[in-house]
Amino acid sequence: MKANHKDKSLAKKVLLSVVAAGVMSGFVLTAEAAEGKFFENQVFNETNVNYEKVNAFGGAQVTLKDGVVTGLKESRFDPDDPEDEGRTHADVAAEIGDSGTRLEANNIAFTGEVSAVEGSSIVINGGSITAGNAYYDAAHGNKVEKLATEIGAHDGSTIELNKVKIDSNIGAFDGGIVTVKDSDVNAAFAIYAEGKGTINLISTDGNAKYNVGSEGIEAADGGVINIIGGGTLLTTNNISAEGNGSKFVTDGSVEAKKIEAISNASVILNGGGKITGAELPSGTKVAALVFGNSTLTATDVHFTGDFKAEGGSKIILKGGSVTASDYYDKDGKKDGYTEFGAVGEGSSVEAEGVDIKSATLAVDGAKVTIKDSNINTAEGIWAWKNGTIDLISTDGNATYTASGEGVEAVEGGVINIKGGGTLHTTNISVEGDNSSFVTDGSVEAKKLTAKSNASVILNGGGKITSIKEAHVDPDDDRVGYADVSAESSGAGSKIVANNADFYGEVHASTGCTIILNGGSVTSGTFYDKDGNSIEDYPTEIGSRGEGAYVELNKVKIDSNLGAFEGAVLTVNDSNVNANKAIYAEGGTINLISTDGNAKYTVGFVGVKAVEGGVINIKGGGTLHTTNISVEDDNSSFVTDGSVEAKKIEAISNASVILNGGGKITGAELPSGTKVAALVFGNSTLTATDVHFTGDFKAEDGSKIILKGGSVTASDYYKDGKNDGYTEFGAVGKGSSVEADGVDIKSATLATDGAKVNIKNSSINTVEGIWAWGKGSEIVLNGTAANVYTVGESIVAFDDGKIYINGGTLKENELRKKMFGIEVDGKTIKTQSQGIVLDKNGVISTMSDQIYANAASATQKKSGEITNAGIDFKGGSLILNDAQFTLSYANSAWAELAKQGVTKLTMNGTLADKDATIDDVAASEGKIDLNNVTAKADNNLLVGSNDASLAGKDVAGINVQQQVGNGFSVGKLDLGAGSGGVVITNNKEVTLGGSQGGSVITVDGADVDVKVVVGTTAPVAGAPESKGTLNIGNGNPNEKDYRLQGAVEVNAGSSLNVKGQTEITGSVSLNDAKIDVNKGALKTAALNVAGNNQLLGAVNAANVKLNAAGATLAIGNEKGAGQLTVEKADLNGGMVFLDPAWEVSTGIEDASGLAVTGVTGGTVELNGAYVAGRNSKLSFGANLADADAAFARSGETWSKNGVTAAAYIASPVKVDNGSITVNGSLDAAPAASEAPAGSVKFADNSMLMVNVNAAAISDTQAAITSVTAAEISAKSKLYLDNAEKDKTYKIIDGVAANWNVDNILSNNKLLKFEVDAATNSVKTTSKSVKDAYGDAVVAGDVYDAAVSAGGAAADFVAKAADEHVNANTATQVSAFNSAAAMGELAGVEHGTYAASNLFTDAISEHMSLTNEKEHDSDIWAKYIHSKENVDGLAVAGADSKYDVNYNGIVVGADLYKNGKATVGAALSYVDGSVKGNTLAARTENDATYYGASVYGGIQNEDSAVIGDISYLHGKNDITQHNSGMTLTADAKSDAFSIGVRAEKTLKAGVGKFVPYAGIRYMHLGTGNYNNSLGMSYDGDDMNLWLLPVGVKYSADVKAGGWTIRPIAEIGYVWNMGDRDATQTVSLNGTSNGFGYDVADNGSYIGRFVVEAEKANVTYGLGYEYQKGDSVKANKWMANVNWSF
After folding, report:
1. Which tens digits make up the pLDDT trace of 273-328?
2. Contacts of 306 (CB under 8 A, 6+ apart)
3. Beta bridge partners of 1456
4. Mean pLDDT of 1657-1664
5. Is 1571 helix (H, G, I), strand (E, B) or coil?
6. Residue 1623 and residue 1565: Cα distance in Å, rounded?
7. Beta-sheet pairing, 1437-1457 with 1418-1434
8. Which of 269, 290, 281 is nearest to 329 (CA)?
9. What whole-number distance in Å separates Cα of residue 923 and Cα of residue 893?
10. Which of 833, 794, 830 lies closest to 810 in space, CA to CA?
C-alpha cells in the first residue's frame, strides 16, 4: 500500500466578514455613504430603490421592490481569524439583524455582501446579487480581491433567494439557513456552511447551475449543504464536509476536484458527475478523502485519483466510475497508480454498478463490497491485514481485470467473488492465517499462491496459465526456473479449484492442500539456470512433506504426478497423461476410478515408487506406461486396474501388486534380450491375470506370486547373438515363485536354493524345466487339465528337486530330456530321484522311458525301473504304448509298488486276451486300464471272495460272481441277464476311461442295472461295509459318461464323479456322500435318508428326504455344492447349505439349492431350507437366475458383504416348511430353530424377489402362510423388475418388514416406502439427478421426460434398468450417449473434417509443387479418408468412433491475368460414422456439399493462395441405446476463409516448398430434435487453423512423361473454439455440457506421385494425419486437364 494522501482542507473562512456591529467582539463598523436604514418594529414598503446599503434591525419589516443596492465599502476584518490578515474593507449591500427583522426584496440588484444575523430573515425574489470586493492593506500590496463577499446567514437567521441571479459566495453559520430556489449561482470562492448552518440549493426544474471557485464547497462543524431537485454543481476545487453532523447532499450533477468527508461528516452525491482529482505537491491526484467515521455516498459519479475510506468511514457508490491516476513518491518519481478502497477497522466501501479502473484494496480490518461492477486495474486487488473485499455479480457478467501485481490477500485478508463474473489477473496470492480468496466466477490468472494457513477457492472454472519463475528442484540441480501455476505452502494452506484449467506445476508443501475438481492440468517446462528449456523435463502435479495433500477429481491431466516425503496425492475419476513419470518418493499416490474407465498413460520414465513411496490404483482403470519401478523398504505399487508396461522392477524390500490384469511386453536390453521383470532384494511381485513376455525371475530372497495370466519367453541374446530364450523362475536362497492358473510358455527354473510352486498351470516351453542347486525346488501342482511340455530338457541337478504333485508331464522321449544335457560345454543329467512323482501328479510317457523293457503285443515283463531320475512316491504313471499284455501291466505295476503308491494307467489296447474281472482285480485297482472293458459273468460282488455268498442276495442283488479287490477299467460288461454290482469292504471301483460313454453294459448293451455302494452291514468275508464308486478315472481328459440304472450309496460310502455324467435312474443316499469333482451329475431322482453330504453340481428331477430327521448338507469346508431339482419333498427334513469362504469367490461359486417346479403357481415347502455361510436358495427359478438377479442388485458377495441369500421367482408357501438365510451359520441348526411357518433373514442376508415372475402385488405376497418372522435390520431386500407407483407385499401372515434403507431394485430411479401395517413396500419415482448426481449430464431433462411420459420416459426407464444396462457405469453411459448423440455421431467434427478435405484439395491444386500455370485448367480429385476418433471430450467422457469419407472435388481455373488466377470448385462427400460407448452404438449417414471460390498470385518462386469456401452437411443419425433406436436429422455448416504463402527453394533436381497459412472457420449446427423429443442447441464455433510445413517435389522425365513425386510434412495448430457447449432440452427444461470438436493440433505426412503427359496430369497419393485424439488415413487420386 502506498502512503496515505490525506490532504488538509484549504477552505477559507474569509467570507465571514458580514456581521452586524456589536454582534461579535472585535468587529468594526463604519458607514460613510448613504444607506437605507430600517429600525424598530416598523413596516416599510419601498419601490425603485437606490441604496448603497440596506440595514434593518429591531424587528423591522422591510419590503423593497425594484431598484439597486450598489454596495458600501466598509471596514471589515476579524483580528481572531488569521485568514483575514491584512484585510481592511469590504463592499456590503445588505445587513439585517435582530430576531423578527425581515427584509423582502423583489427584483433588486444587490452588489456586495448580503447578511442576516441574530435570527433575522431575508427573502429575495428575482433580481440579482453580485459579490463585492475585499480590500487589503499596503502590507499586502493593497490587493483588491474581486467578488470576495458572500450571501451569509448567521445565528439562526434565514436567507431565501428565489430566481435570483447570484454571482456571489454563499455562507451559512451557527444555525443560519440559506435557501436558494431556481437560481443559478456563480461563487468566485466558496459555498460554505459552518456551525450547524444550512444551505439549500433547490431547482424545481433541475436546470440550475452552481459554479464555485477556488475554495470550493465546504460544510464544517455541523454545517449542511443540500442541492435539491437536480441542477449542476461545478467547482474548481473541492467539496468538503468536516465535523460532527456536517453534510453535503446533492441530487444534481457535480464536477469537482476532490471530495473530503472528515470527522463524522457525510457527502452524498445522488445526481452523477465527476471528481477529477486534486493534485498534491508530489503530483499525485486525490479524488476523495473520507475518514474519521465519515460517509461518502455517490451515484453515477466518475472519480479520478486516490480514493479511500479511512478511520471507520464509509464510501457508498452507485454507478459511475473510479479511475486511477499516476502515483508519485515523495521525491516526485512516478511509482504506479492511485488506489481505491478502505483502510482501518470499521472502514468500508460499497460500490454497485461502478466502472472501476483502479487498484482496489481493503486494509487493517476494512471491508470493500463491489457489486455488479467491472474492475480494470493495471495494478491489483488487495486485501491486507484482516481487510475484506467482496466482489458480487448478480447476473454473473462482471469482469475483474488486475493486470499488474494481481490479486492479493495477506495477514488475514479476505477476497470473495460471488455470483459469478470473470477475473483476469496475473497472480492470485494469499498469505497468512485466515487469509482467503474465494470465487464462484471464472478466473484467468498466471499463478495461484496460498501460503501460511491461507486458502484459495475457485468455484467458477477458468484457466491458470503459469509464471516462469526461479525454482529449486531437490532432485535435479540443473533446474533454475519452472512454469508454475499453483503453489500451496506454509502449514494449513489450501487451494481448491473447480473446473479450472492449469498449465504448469501444481504443488502442495508440508501441511498444505490442493483440491482440483474438474478442469485440467497440463504440464509446463523446467528451465536451466540460463532460462533455456530442459528437454523432456516437464513439470508435475506434486505434493511434498508430511501432511501435504493434493486431490484431483474428474480432472483432465496432461502432467506428471509426484508425491514426496510423506505427502499424499489422490486422483479420482480422472484420465492421466504423464509424458514422463508418476513418481512417489516417500509419498503416496492414489489413482481411483469409480467406474473403472480411467486411463493412465505414462511416458519414458514410467511409474516409480522409491524410499517408502506408495502408488495405488483403485477401482480399475487402465495404466499404459514404459516401466513400473518400486525400490526401497516399504515402497509399493498396487493396482486393481489393467496394466500395460514394458517392465516391472521391485527392488530392496519393495512390492508390486497387479490385481487387474494386463500385459508386460518386456524392456529390451542393449543386447536385444527382453526383460519382463526384475524382482530382487527381498521384494515381492504379485500379479493377477497379467501376461508377461521376456526374462522374469525372483532373486535375492524375493517372491513372485502369479494368479492367472501368462508368461511367454522371448529371444535371449549373448554377445549380440541369439542364444535361446529367456527364463522364468527364482534364483537364490529365500527366492520363490508361486504361479496359480498361469499359462507358462517359458523355460522354468529354480536355482541356488530357490523355490518355485506352479499350481493349476500348464507349461509349454521350447527349452526346459530346471531345478539346480541344493535346496532348489520346483513343485508342479496342477489339475488334471494341466500339461507340462518341455522342448529340450527337464533336469533336477546338483541336489535340486522337481516335484510333480498335480498335472501331467507329457513327454514320450523322457530319458533324452532328463539325461545327457549339454549346458555351457558341460553335460548334466537329472540326479537320482531328482524328479518326484507324488499325490495327483501324472507322468505320461512311453514304457521304455521308465522300464528296462518296452510294452508290446508280446512282451510279458516290464523289467525293473531303469530311469533312476524319477522317485515314484505316488501320483499316476501313464504309459502310451499302443499295445500291451496284461502280464506286462501287472509286472510294471509291481515294480512301481516297490517305490511307493504310484498308480499305473495303460492307455493302449490289451493285446493278448479279453480281460476278465478276475484279471483286472488282480492289481487291486492300482492300474487304470483306460481303454479296457472288463467282462464279468453275471451279478458281481466286489470286496469278498467268500464262497458262502454265491447265489445269495446281497443288498437286493443275487451274487453270481465275486472278486476280492477293486479295479479300474474303462467299462464293465456284465454277462447276459445280469442286474447289478455290489461294492463293499472298503473297496474302490473306477469306471470310465478316455472313450467315455456307458460305464456298465449287460452283454454289450445298455440295460438298467443297480449299483450298490457299501452295504448296510458287513457281509461274509468282508469286515468293512463301506465302498466307493468312481465314475471317471484319473485320465486328464474329461468325458461324458452314462450309467443306465440306479445307484444306492450306503453309510460311509461315496459316489465320486469326474466328467459330465448321467445316471438314468435314481441316486439314493443313506448317510452317504456324493462328490462331483468336475463336470456335473444328472439323475432322475435323489433320495435321501439319514445325514448326507453333497459336493459339486447335481441336477435331479426330484429330491426326497425319506424321514423327518433326514438332512442333506450341500457344501462343506472343502468345497461347494449346487443342487437343482424340479420338485423337492423334504418330508419334514432339512437341507443345509454351507461352503467355507476359502473354497469359492462370488455368488456363482457359492453353494446353492434351486427348486424350479411350481404347483398351482406356488412353491410349497415341507421342510427346513437353511442357507448358511456363502450359500443361496432359489425358488421357482434356477441358480443362474438367482446369480443374475444378485449381480443386478449391485451388492458384493463376500464375508464382509452379503453372506447368504434367497431368490423367489414364484410365491413360496411355508405353512409346512421354513426358510432360514443366515450367513453366519457353519453348522446345521437344530430342527427346533427352523420350525414350520418360520422365516428368518439374519444380518448381511438378502431376499431377492422377482416381482414380475412371481406376480407379487399388494395382495399376493412373496412368502405366504408365515407364522413367525425374524428380519434383521441389516438384512437387505432386492425387488427385481420393480416398477414405479406399485405396491409389493413381501410376507403374509405376521408383521415383518425390511429397513427401508436396505431395500434395493434393478432400477435406480425408484424410491421405497415401507407400509408396516400391510407388510408392503410402495415404490415412487426418484429423480435422475438424485440417483446419478452430476454423472448424468442432462439429469434435469430426463426428469422432465419422466414427468411428461411418452417415448422419452420409456427410454429413461430402460436406461436405468439393470436388466438392460448391467451396472451404474453402463446406465450413465446410456443417458449421456442419448444426450450427446450428435457429438457421438460426429456432426460437428465430421463437418469440420469434410470442410478440411475440401479446402486442402484446393490448396494442393494451387501449390507451387505442381508446376501448373493454372490457365483454364479443369481438375478433379477423389478422396477416401478413414478417421479414428478416440479421446475428444464429450459429456465428461471421451468419444470413440470411426469415420469413413468418400468425396470428389471438381474445380476449374476460370480466369488468368498475369500472375493472378481465379477459380471455382464444388465438392461432394459421403460420410459414415460408427462408434460405441458402454451402452450405445451410434451411426451417422452423412452427406456434405461444398462450393468455393479460390485464387492465387504466383511469382516465379513464391505464391499466395486463398479461398472462400462453404460446406453444408446433412446428418442422418441412428443410435441403438438400451434396447431402443433413437434417430435424429441434423444439418451443419462450415464457412471458411483461408490464405497460404509458399516459397520455392531449389535443391538439386527438385525443390523444397515451405509454407505457412491461416484459416478462419465458422462451424454451426442447426437446432434439431431426436425421436424421443429431446432438442439440441449447440454453440457455433469460430476456429483458427495455422498450417505450417514443407513440401518437396522433383520432376523426372521418362519418355513423354513427367513423373513428379511430392512429399510433405507439416503441422496444423488449431485455436479458437475447439470446445463448445451443447444444450439439451425437453418441455422447457434444459441442461448443458461441454464437448471438443477438434484436437489442438495435428501432424501431417503426405506422399503423392503425379504423372504428367501433354496437358493431362494424373496423381495418386496417401496422407497420414495424427493428433492427440484423431488419427486419419487418406488416399487420393486426382486428374488435371490444362487447356
Report:
1. 999 999 999 999 999 999 999 999 999 999 999 999 999 999 999 999 999 999 99
2. 5, 277, 284, 285, 286, 287, 288, 325, 327, 338, 339, 340
3. 1461
4. 93
5. coil
6. 12
7. antiparallel
8. 281
9. 8
10. 794
pLDDT of the residue at 1140: 81
- 619 contacts: CB under 8 Å, gap ≥ 6: 592, 593, 594, 595, 596, 598, 640, 641
pTM: 0.68
Q: Strands 520-522 and 500-503, how do they pair?
A: parallel
Burial class (CB in 10 A: 0-12, 13-18, 19+), 1497: middle
pLDDT of residue 79: 53
First-residue to last-residue Cα distance in the chain: 77
Q: What is the DSSP letter of 918?
A: H
Determine the length of the chain: 1683
Contact 512, 548 (CB under 8 A): yes
Task: Encode pLDDT of 1583-1640 as tens digits.
Answer: 999 999 999 999 888 888 999 999 999 999 999 888 888 999 999 999 999 899 999 9
Residue located via cell numbers 521304455: 848
Residue 1065 to residue 1047: CA distance in whole angstroms? 8
Question: E-strand spans in 405-478?
Answer: 406-410, 414-418, 422-425, 427-431, 436-439, 442-445, 447-451, 455-458, 462-464, 467-470
Beta bridge partners of 1609: 1590, 1645
With 70 as the cut, is the pLDDT of residue 611 above it?
yes
558 pLDDT more than 60 = yes
Comparing CA positions, the residue from 416, 401, 406 lying closest to residue 449 is 406
Q: What angle do CA 1406, 1410, 1414 make, to 5 degrees?
A: 50
Count the neighbouring beta carbons within 10 Å of the beta carbon of residue 142: 11
Q: How confident is the model at residue 536 (pLDDT cuts 50, 70, 90)?
A: confident
DSSP conformation class of 1119: B
Task: Evaluate whether 1114 touches 1149 at the Cβ level (below 8 Å).
Answer: no
d(CA 1298, CA 1242): 11
Q: How confident is the model at residue 1360 (pLDDT cuts 50, 70, 90)?
A: very high
From the list 1555, 1552, 1683, 1549, the residue with the least C-alpha distance to 1603 is: 1549
Question: Which burial class, exposed, middle or buried, applies to 948 when counting CB atoms under 10 A from its CB (0-12, 13-18, 19+)?
Answer: exposed
- Band (1421; pLDDT cuts 50, 70, 90): very high
Q: Which residue, among 11, 17, 10, has the nearest Cα to 136 in the 3D structure?
A: 17
Q: 1394 near 1423, Cβ under 8 Å? A: no
Q: How far apart are CA 169 and CA 191, in angstroms?
A: 6
Whole-angstrom CA distances from 64 to 31, 42, 48, 1482 are: 21, 14, 8, 97
Put residue 611 in one of left, alpha, beta given phi > 0 → left and psi -120 to 50 → alpha: left
Per-residue pLDDT of 899-943, as tens digits, reads 999 999 999 999 876 789 998 998 888 899 999 999 999 999 999
The set of cell numbers assigned to 1021 is 468275508
Which distant-in-sequence residues (6+ apart) come within 8 Å of 417 by Cβ? Answer: 391, 392, 393, 400, 423, 438, 439, 440, 441, 460
Report the share of the chain in percent with pLDDT over 70. 97
- Among 1640, 1642, 1633, which residue's Cα sits nearest to residue 1610? 1642
User: Does residue 25 register a pLDDT over 50?
Assistant: no
Nearest to 1224 by CA among 1175, 1183, 1153, 1169: 1175
**Which of the pair, 8 or 736, is modelled with greater confidence?**
736
Question: Grid coordinates standing for 201?
Answer: 440549493
Q: How confident is the model at residue 516 (pLDDT cuts 50, 70, 90)?
A: very high
d(CA 115, CA 121): 9
**Residue 1481 CA from chain centroid, whole number:** 23
DSSP 3-state assignment of 790? Answer: strand
Q: Which residue bears the cell 513425386? A: 1605
